[in-house]
Amino acid sequence: MPTTRLIAVTIATVAGVGRFPVAPGTAGSLVAVPLLPVLANLRGGSPLAYALVVLAIVLTGIWAAGIAEDVLGGPDHSRIVIDEVSGMILAGLFLPGTWVAAGLAFVLFRILDVVKPFPAGLIDARVHGGLGVVGDDLVAGVYAGLLGRLVLAVV
């Protein structure tokens, strides 16, 4: 496999996490949980650096997922889990950098990733390539972050 394709598949599968035999999407989401407090700390110190890191993760994920689809032989292949990481990171945009918030983001994101509320289901069904793979998870991440913020405000 050419180096670029190998790098893309490694990123898309989050260094093999996507090979987890049961619920690889959940495993991919768990990878992002410890990143949320770390990124929130970065956000507090340098909002610009935070924005650049989040943007880099999302854009790299879209690129890698698009190539990995071709290599792995199917649209939104179950081994591709960078979309879950990207969605979780987007949820973190709206939440404080606590472990409680990270855990809440995980639970809400997993539910919303499965349910695919509008327009996530539409993106999943109609958008192809890396953007289609990651796009529905970005929507789920935004919803999870907003809902999580609401839950934390009420509790």
For this entry, give a set of tags.
75% helix; mainly alpha; 155 residues; globular
In short:
With 155 residues, the chain is mainly α.
SSE layout and pairing:
Blueprint: H1 3-12, H2 24-32, H3 35-45, H4 47-72, H5 82-91, H6 99-115, H7 120-126, H8 129-154
In words, what does this structure look like?
This protein has 155 residues and is mostly helical. It has one domain (3-154). Helices cover 75% and strands 0% of the residues. It has 8 helices and no strands. The chain has helices at residues 3-12, 24-32, 35-45, 47-72, 82-91, 99-115, 120-126, 129-154. The longest helix is centred in the middle third of the chain and has 26 residues, at 47-72. It is globular, with a radius of gyration of 15 Å.
